[in-house]
Structures are given as C-alpha cells and as structure tokens.
Amino acid sequence: MSDEQYMKLALAEAQKAFNKEEVPVGAIVVMNNTIIAKAYNQVELLNDSTAHAEIMALTTAYQFLGSKYLPEATLYVTLEPCLMCTGALYWSKINRIVFGAYDEKNSYRRATGTNNPFHPKTEIIGGVLEEECSLLMKEFFKKLRSN
User: Fold this and answer.
1) Is 21 one of the catalytic residues?
2) For the whole model, what pTM was predicted?
C-alpha cells in the first residue's frame, strides 16, 4: 500500500476521535506491510494529557512486538507530532514518520526550530493527505466553538 492509503486508515482513526469529541488525531504503525497498531487521541476519555494518538499507537506496537524499539516500522499520523510525542518517537527509534497536516502552533518545530529532534536514522515525510487531515481538524474546532 502507498503512504496515501495508509494515511486514509489513520484518518479513519482520527474520525473515531472526532466522533467521541476528542481532538481528531489518528495514528497507525505499519511494519512489513502489516498494520501492527491503530490508535486515536483519548485525552478526554482517559483524563490523561499524554493519551495522544502517537503515544497510544507506540504502546500498542511495543506490546504487539514484545519490543521497546521500532527500527523497521512506519508511523502514519494525521497531525504533525507535538514535542511530547517527538520525544517518545525519538526513543522508539522508528524508521519513518509520515504525517498529514502541519501544526504551526504545537509541533516539535516550534521548540526545536530546524533541528531534527528524531532519531538520526528516522525519515520524516510531511503533508501526506494534508488537506483531508487539516479539514477534519478545522471541522472539529469549528464545532467546538459553536457549542
């Protein structure tokens, strides 16, 4: 499958978050063309500010593999990772990070500038299905403001 096809699956996870009134971020972890983890934001549900989609997906992937590192895996996430998730991704030694929408307010770039805060071998690809990912976020915050 292509990056776009996997990102559509991450978007399906983000839609689950949207439906549960969570910030709509979804993530999947893929290894050897197999999805080993799926997750979405659960901050409100779990009353846990660390329950971001990326963290939830990493935890599921670690448990699935029985390993604390993911050097052969790719994370697909609908929003550019925040600084907290970036730290977790650094320690995971993940091979690739593919994200959809850019996040100018809360992304790792805000704190790190142009420096790469991920593991040196990690490949980062941004803007995959950016419009679709961004639209879901905009719809969520528009709905939130109207309530």
Assistant:
1) no
2) 0.93
